[in-house]
Amino acid sequence: MSENALTERDRRFVAEIVGGESPPDAWVNAGFAATTAKKKSYEKLRQPKIVEAINAAKVKQQVRTDIHADYVLQTLRENVEMCMGRLESAHPVITYDKKGKPQVQQLKVFKHDASAANKALENLGRHLKLFTDQVEVKTHEEALRELEQRFESVTGTKPASAATTH
After folding, report:
1. Residues 87, 92, 95, 97: what is their CA dihedral angle, to the nearest 10 degrees?
2. Residues 25, 16: contact at Cβ < 8 Å?
3. What is the pTM of this model?
4. CB contact at 8 A, 96 and 103
């Protein structure tokens, strides 16, 4: 789909969503009426052309910023390890020799910060959907495909039903 298929307000709505705004705020910021924001913004999010535009804009954003899910997850993992005192971090320390000349040395520190570790673990857990309070709805085909993939990853073979249904 070309971006030209979207109206100017649709393009602004997409940009606001990708920028992190809530759907009602994105709706108003894009120039739509505030009185209809709550209902209409969520309806707009279900339009295929809007979904496609948001997905395309997110891909462009990831390429442009070089920030993607792998980077975020790896950084969160490193943060957990550092905050639990399992990874050292280097801090510059200035010392002086006998002549009074300053020398910079790297002091290796193992620091325990339970609060920061818990926050990083919470974010990782949310990514893995360990703390989901919502029910995820899938079509029969999606659920079957997921079960077949899990079966294959555990056993190394395709389930017998996969050969006949696909």
Report:
1. 90
2. yes
3. 0.50
4. yes
Q: What are phi and psi of 92, to 5 degrees?
A: -70, 135
For the CA atoms of the chain, what is the radius of gyration? 25
- Per-residue pLDDT 10s for the chain (166 aa) are 555 589 999 999 999 999 999 999 999 999 999 999 999 999 999 999 999 999 999 999 888 888 778 888 888 888 888 888 777 777 788 888 889 899 888 877 777 788 888 888 888 888 777 776 666 677 888 888 888 888 888 888 888 765 555 5
How many Cα atoms sit within 13 Å of 55 on the Cβ side? 9
For 30, phi then psi, to 5°, come to -80, -5
- In angstroms, what CA-CA distances link 8 with 3, 24, 54, 85? 10, 17, 14, 51
